[in-house]
């Protein structure tokens, strides 16, 4: 169960195998054919050679930007992600200070729009922005709930930033390779963790267990740390999917999908860090 935002995408997903004998051939890049192939194929075989003036003009022309090529770039992803994060922080801060009761509205709205956006083939900026607003309500409200532990919200924010930066560093350094085996392990681990969390939630809601349910004490600390490790692995898989989209020449509009996927992972990571810190605070008696 990788991030469905990326794994369900024909652009960011893993290259699909063809029906060739042995199953080793990969499907052709859809962005190397069609209108793109026709556009750039005119300079291929059978065309008369260009003169010195034409070559000079091409050499002196400014480099094409993403606006010219309409292809996905890392800058597109950074700008979209930064904008959505800024919006989420503003909404979260307003909810925290003025309307923490909107946490349930944010949770339900975020869940619905999260599923809708995850399975859309073409990104909708409006729906992604709306999802970010709902997630801001959820983050602000849940932060208010856990704010009884002094300084815990700031620590969770700082922890999320550090985990994101550390994950990006490890990925860029190549010290951890995102291989098919890596993603398969992550998928199985996330499925197991999701089932555990569902059972634990039911036990808490029904009153069978109090507090954090099965996540109290040292067991809760260990489970929380395991969840954060899964979050780090998820971020690395997200980075790999984005890299694949850029390399395959995905349309520039897919930057919205990439940014949305990162927001999903970061919000989940923040809530896990917040929960872990609260368990540690409770367990230590602070």
What does this molecule look like?
The structure is a single chain. By secondary structure, the protein is mostly helical. The protein has one domain. It contains eleven helices and no strands. About 11% of the residues have low confidence. It comes from Myceligenerans crystallogenes.
Task: Give descriptors for this structure.
11 helices, membrane, Bax inhibitor-1/YccA family protein, 0% strand, globular, transmembrane helix, 286 residues, transmembrane, mainly alpha, single chain, BaxI_1-like
In a nutshell, what does this entry contain?
This protein has 286 residues and is mostly helical. The protein contains 11 helices and no strands. It is globular and about 80 Å long.
Distance between the termini: 36 Å
Q: What does the main sheet amount to? A: none
Helical/strand content category: mainly alpha
Low-pLDDT runs of 5+ residues are: 16-46
Mean pLDDT: 81
Strands, total number:
0
Count of helical segments? 11
List the helices and strands and how they pair.
Layout: H1 4-7, H2 34-41, H3 52-60, H4 66-69, H5 74-98, H6 103-118, H7 125-146, H8 152-173, H9 180-205, H10 217-247, H11 254-284
Helix pairs in contact: 5-7, 5-11, 6-7, 7-11, 8-10, 8-11, 9-10, 10-11
Pfam families: BaxI_1
Protein name: Bax inhibitor-1/YccA family protein
Keywords: Membrane, Transmembrane, Transmembrane helix
